[in-house]
Amino acid sequence: MTLTPKISKIKPLVFFTKLTLRSISWHKFILLVRFFSPEQVTRVTQLEEALAQNPTVTDFYSPRLHQDAQAEQFTKTWATEIFHRDMAQIAAAQVIVTVLDFEAKNLDSGTAYELGVATMRDLPIIALQEKDEAVNLMITESLHWYTKQVSDFETYDFKIT
């Protein structure tokens, strides 16, 4: 028995358009990171500071710094608002910066989902991994550049990405 997908029933996400590397003006970045534990917040803060020092980065969006919402936190309305805001930021991004920060040897499912969205948009994904954990090939094969030092983000030339 062969299953044929019913693609016609899938609604396309209108704001996701394919970009080529040659058509991008390099100034819009989004950080896809976990910031739930003190260790993760420290790592993300260090990454934000490194990006702020980089002369090839003119701005970036860090969800950690944009937790304000119209709806009450942890309600369905809040979750919908945060989801749509983060998806809109990925849609507007030209480069994705992520931290491969693991919890029990697994990448955060939300971060993995967002990286999948970025991959389907052909966005360059720049990754930091300070911990020594194995990374699933679906993540490693989507990366454009990888480092183990947060300080590398102060000098990385994002214009060549």
Summarize the topology.
Blueprint: E1 28-32, H1 38-53, E2 59-61, H2 76-92, E3 95-99, E4 102-103, E5 106-107, H3 109-120, E6 125-128, H4 137-140, E7 145-147
Parallel strand pairs: 1-2, 1-3, 3-6, 6-7
Antiparallel strand pairs: 4-5
Quick structural summary:
It contains four helices and seven strands, in the order E-H-E-H-E-E-E-H-E-H-E.
What report would you give on this structure?
The chain is of the alpha/beta class and 161 residues long. It has helices at residues 38-53, 76-92, 109-120, 137-140; strands at residues 28-32, 59-61, 95-99, 102-103, 106-107, 125-128, 145-147. 30% of the residues lie in helices and 15% in strands. Strand 4 (102-103) and strand 5 form a beta hairpin. Mean pLDDT is 77; it is low at 1-27. The strands form two sheets. The chain has a five-stranded parallel β-sheet with strand order 2-1-3-6-7, sandwiched between helices. Strands 4-5 form a two-stranded antiparallel sheet. It contains four helices and seven strands. The termini are far apart.
List keywords for this structure.
single chain; 161 residues; alpha/beta; two-stranded antiparallel ribbon; 30% helix; globular; disordered N terminus
